[in-house]
Amino acid sequence: xxxxxxxxxxxxxxxxxxxxxxxxxxxxxxxxxxxxxxxxxxxxxxxxxxxxxxxxxxxxxxxxxxxxxxxxxxxxxxxxxxxxxxxxx
Length: 89
Fold this sequence. Notes:
Blueprint: H1 10-23, H2 27-52, H3 57-69, H4 79-87
């Protein structure tokens, strides 16, 4: 594992420490998780851009609208309901 010395503004560090504390993690863990999420987002957007580069955007838009027109309104499931569905109960 690499060690990195990082310089940042005092106010930015204080805000990051506050967010880390609210999540119950160290500043180091918070920075690592935030950086990992940012990299994953960037890589996902690049992958999706590659996959959609040869797609007819108008046809895709029509398919999405058709799908969305079939959705039904309702209440969101509770975490317990999701857990039961995932566990197969």
